[in-house]
Amino acid sequence: MMDKLTLVCLVLCFTFSGMGFSQQVTPTPDQIIALTSAWEGERFSDGRPKIPDDLLERLKGISMEEAWGNLRNKGYNNQFENDWIILKEDEVLTGRAVTAQYMPFREDVNTLVKEIGKSENRAQSGGTNSWPIDVLVDGDVYVADGYGKIVDGTLIGDNLGNAIYANSGNGVIFNGSVRDMAGLSKIDGFNAWIKGHDPSYIQEMMLTTINYPIRMGRATVLPGDAVLANKWGVIFIPSHLVADLVINAEFTALRDQFGHQRLREQKYTAGEIDSRWSEAIKQDFLGWLEEKQDLPMSREELDAYLKDRNW
């Protein structure tokens, strides 16, 4: 358990890191563990929650409304952002967030960040915008707050896009812009949710932190959050809520599928399906579940969920 002094220091570290005053570009593993303390599962060596791959794959089938509603019911009201330009809008992206903060360029702060980066053995050739890419691992999503800058705010082009995909097998979410959309679109498996694109190179902006909390429009994002991005927007899910969100959303989708089918069959009225179900409808639904072959979850997971469910 962390004492009060350590907690205060941690909070101050997070508060001032965004202004370049932190003595580290990235929090220590212990600091990330403290920041994401509600997560009880496996972690990466950097301290980020390691949400299981199978949950991230199942998350692709969850609608934005189901995910948003689940989080709102738990009091997480600021996890969604929309109005994106999407590189390949018919694809769905899920993964674990690696966060980065960018700010308008200031010489003294940028010099400090570079000095700290050198002491942390970060690459000294090229720009600091390559540093977040260097820490990506398979299944990560690079999430960056570029404060909405479009012209001269292009965080990557197709070269860095290829590096991102090579490290993560995934894509990016930028509150900012990219260059060379044509080149990026040719990277199989890579996708991007951005606020704009421009042929200019990145200028007059600087990286300040990696894997600290950041703001993405309406949303607050922590390192290790699950990302769900599709054509309808992006939602950032706290790691400790992912498993519950997935099973609840999958079950809701099954209920809807059953209800729609029975309405088409005219077995029940719209009022019966759209209100609290009678015991007869519940039993019909349970029988329908028993016969269904293409469940999104395992039978064991479904049985455990039904055992605890309050209809």
TrEMBL record:
Keywords: Magnesium, Metal-binding, Methyltransferase, Signal, Transferase
Cofactor: Mg(2+); a divalent metal cation
GO MF assignments: metal ion binding; methyltransferase activity
Gene3D superfamilies, per the entry: Ribonuclease E inhibitor RraA/RraA-like
GO biological process: methylation
Stretches assigned to coiled coil: none
Entry-linked SUPFAM superfamilies: RraA-like
Binding of Mg(2+), residues: D180
Binding site residues for substrate: G157, D158, N159, L160, R179
Database matches in Pfam families: RraA-like
Organism domain of life: Bacteria
UniProt signal peptide: 1-22
Protein name: Putative 4-hydroxy-4-methyl-2-oxoglutarate aldolase
Organism (species): Cyclobacterium lianum
Organism lineage string: Bacteria, Pseudomonadati, Bacteroidota, Cytophagia, Cytophagales
